[in-house]
């Protein structure tokens, strides 16, 4: 660390330069901490903080540098394609376009100098798998311009938003990524490149990795994003080709993170396929299909209307689940057509034409009703499925008069009245009765204490907690201080009930 010593021969004057420097560095350190905290909060999993030492004394705590790495994913335009070229057996150059929705992120690796943001900008490198060094150099220059415009203020958020929202426009991308433009150099061995590979000169003079301060370093260990971290960040090691042409002026902070033997087209397609799986959510689709939700398999994110097509569903879910979804979707589509419905028999499901409410399966010859989908019943009213009866009854009881007439024409008034009485009875039992803990018979309590006797199986039980009581000492349940129903034998009884009715011979047992 640099110490500034000022010798002043004038005893009448004092120089506060050194305290001011320390105060400024302290403020810079606080702003750096705040910015790192904000980046971690905003970008969460896309941000990784790193901490290490700059060149010099590795044990000096004041020589410690801070920074991080941001994986910046871009929002691509709709119908974005990758253009690749290959040569067939006849020597004809053919073009191939591949639609993608996701591209690998741009990685921004940065470290803070001691005097950031008051005097110096962050040291940084930019790496990407699908941009060449010329394009990455343009982005580096734009980041420098943004620092100049905001000098003295924290700038990382501004940088990230530019790379995320404006980098495609800065590089004049519209709707196509041409892989031919990604190749920065030709292979030094003279081997032709026909598969869309990003290659570089493998000579010793030009294969050194670039560290975060912009200096050449013979250490070729890079982080998972391809950015040299000088041991500051753990990650998979890879060989990074950083070539420098005498005729081209590339920024040393621009790193094309691609090896000479990597098929960039396959890499980008595999990445897009993996990201689509993560966006739609395999578990979400499996749950929705299992629950019978065959339509609108959408992205689970809020305010996202993206729907998966059949090919994506087939790629995401197991084969048996996809077949089930495909069959249910076909049946739903046929049912929506009105005059064509699948055969009601589960093992058949062959499309059948409905004529005057009657359908006959061409495959198994089963004759059925096109309304209730039961066997053909002639002029008799349709029968309701148990799963549909509750919904139909709610409409019949609470619906408009037109809805009631429509249901009576379809199912018959007498049949609906019987179902209505049964429906109301079941609702009353659900609201006012409980099941016996032994025989499960429905029991309604009219009055009296909470010690109940089942008239079917003669078991004694508590009305409050529904536990079976000891036949010899049933009231001990209400006398036990450890019982949840302690002292609650008469809980819930009306105030006007006569608690001390002489005819209640059970009261004497309770008082003993």
From TrEMBL:
SUPFAM superfamilies per UniProt: RING/U-box, UBC-like
Coiled coil: none
Enzyme class: transferase
Keyword presence, Transferase: yes
Region Disordered, residue ranges: 192-238
InterPro entries noted in UniProt: E3_UB_ligase_RBR, IBR_dom, Rcat_RBR_RNF14, RWD_dom, TRIAD_supradom, UBQ-conjugating_enzyme/RWD, Znf_RING/FYVE/PHD
Cross-referenced PROSITE patterns: RWD (PS50908), TRIAD (PS51873)
Protein name: RBR-type E3 ubiquitin transferase
Organism: Petrolisthes manimaculis
Lineage, highest ranks first: Eukaryota, Metazoa, Ecdysozoa, Arthropoda, Crustacea
């Amino acid at each position: 660390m640099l110490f500034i010593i000022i010798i002043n021969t004038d005893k009448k004057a004092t120089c506060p330069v050194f305290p001011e420097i320390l105060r400024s560095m302290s403020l810079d350190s606080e702003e750096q901490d705040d910015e790192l905290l904000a980046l971690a909060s905003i970008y969460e999993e896309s941000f990784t903080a790193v901490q290490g030492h700059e060149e010099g004394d590795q044990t000096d705590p004041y020589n410690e540098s801070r920074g991080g790495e941001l994986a910046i994913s871009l929002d691509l335009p709709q119908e974005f394609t990758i253009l690749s070229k290959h040569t067939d057996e006849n020597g004809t150059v053919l073009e191939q376009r591949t639609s993608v929705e996701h591209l690998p992120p741009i990685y921004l690796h940065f470290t803070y100098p001691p005097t950031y943001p008051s005097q110096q900008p962050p040291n940084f490198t930019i790496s990407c798998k699908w941009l060449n060094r010329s394009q990455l150099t343009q982005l580096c220059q734009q980041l420098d311009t943004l620092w100049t415009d905001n000098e003295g203020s924290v700038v990382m958020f501004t940088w990230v938003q530019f790379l995320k929202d404006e980098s495609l426009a800065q590089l004049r991308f519209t709707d196509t990524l041409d892989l031919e433009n990604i190749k920065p150099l030709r292979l030094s061995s003279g081997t032709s490149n026909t598969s869309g590979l990003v290659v570089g000169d493998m000579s010793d003079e030009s294969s050194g990795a670039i560290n975060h301060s912009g200096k050449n370093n013979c250490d070729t260990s890079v982080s998972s994003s391809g950015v040299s971290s000088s041991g500051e960040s753990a990650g998979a090691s890879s060989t990074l080709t950083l070539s420098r042409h005498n005729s081209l002026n590339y920024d040393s902070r621009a790193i094309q993170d691609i090896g000479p033997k990597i098929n960039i087209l396959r890499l980008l397609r595999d990445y897009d396929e993996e990201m689509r799986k993560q966006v739609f959510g395999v578990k979400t689709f499996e749950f929705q299909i299992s629950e019978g939700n065959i339509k609108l398999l959408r992205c689970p994110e809020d305010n996202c209307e993206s729907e998966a097509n059949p090919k994506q569903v087939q790629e995401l879910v197991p084969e048996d689940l996809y077949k089930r979804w495909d069959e249910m979707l076909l049946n739903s589509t046929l049912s929506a057509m009105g005059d064509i419905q699948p055969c009601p028999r589960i093992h058949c499901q062959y499309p059948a034409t409905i004529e005057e409410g009657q359908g006959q399966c061409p495959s198994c010859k089963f004759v059925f009703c096109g309304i209730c989908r039961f066997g053909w019943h002639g002029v008799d009213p349709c029968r309701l499925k148990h799963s549909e009866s509750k919904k139909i009854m709610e409409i019949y009881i609470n619906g408009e008069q037109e809805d009631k007439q429509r249901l009576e024409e379809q199912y018959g008034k007498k049949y609906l009245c019987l179902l209505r009485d049964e429906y109301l009875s079941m609702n009353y039992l659900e609201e006012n009765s409980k099941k016996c803990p032994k025989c499960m018979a429905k029991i309604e309590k009219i009055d009296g204490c909470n010690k109940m006797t089942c008239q079917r199986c003669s078991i004694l039980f508590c009305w409050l907690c529904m536990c079976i009581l000891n036949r010899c000492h049933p009231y001990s349940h209400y006398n036990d201080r450890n019982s949840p129903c302690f002292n609650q034998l008469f809980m819930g009884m009306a105030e006007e009930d006569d608690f001390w009715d002489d005819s209640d011979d059970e009261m004497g047992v309770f008082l003993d």
